């Protein structure tokens, strides 16, 4: 691990993480101008930040992980204010775009593609940070953000399934070696909903409660999502509802692209009888590119996030290649590559093989790991 040298005390250190707010006027501009303006948001989040990564380089220093919450106010604030900002943007677009005579239907879908990029790149990512916190306010904000893209079950799946069983056959989100994204995406859409529901009902069953008990968070998920659908219909009519659904699809696609690259081909050692080794930094791909970590509030320091899930984003540590595998580029460029499976495999498969040689030189037969046919985790089977 790198030495702790970053000082988080200055508000100026937190300022780059507020760049996400610049996406809001871009979204407004794309709706007002139409035409080529509708590509502003995807061009910015993918290509501009790829260029900025090239210009700003890597941030390989680490903050003091013992920094108290009281010193992180400016970092926490951006995640706390984002829901009202995103909701205000979504409400305005749902009211304005269906009535905008200067926009063709293709341009309207283009504008809401950009809205989906905002909701997926920023909204779901911030909800991910918030759902890991103990504060009820932060967890509610996470649920509200996920409801805007109709993906509320992600909280249950992420906390109760993914973090426990990452790198094992019990985790749908761990992309298998040689599995292209276009096979991964429909698989996780089905399996994650099933595993999220199963995790919550199993927890209720252990307490002797039925699935319909009021403590099942799915009641909250359903009410919030129904409220968002009703809001879209009220503001934009049937066209608005259709556009709302479209931005939700785009946002979920963005999320699952990131999920795909975060653990591609990485597995935990099976110890026998459905037991697996503990999660370590080398079970997630790490990236230290400065600009894309500003945009994604250090999500690319994913190795440490899985090692210490309760650590707030400004305190996440980065690791060198001796401790964690390194992505060759930041997430914006890697997600583009993931959409082209032959290119992705050319970039990543030899890196997975090198990871295996470094961390598991004694394993010679990887077939069961490649196909996720090792036994499911014992505790999950008995849940």
From TrEMBL:
Transmembrane residue ranges: 21-49, 74-97, 109-127, 221-246
A Pfam family annotated for this UniProt entry: FA_desaturase
Keywords: Cell inner membrane, Cell membrane, Iron, Membrane, Metal-binding, Monooxygenase, Oxidoreductase, Transmembrane, Transmembrane helix
Residue intervals of the Fatty acid desaturase domain: 111-334
Membrane topology according to the record: Multi-pass membrane protein
Record localization: Cell inner membrane
Main location: membrane
Protein family membership: Belongs to the fatty acid desaturase type 1 family. AlkB subfamily.
Protein name: Alkane 1-monooxygenase
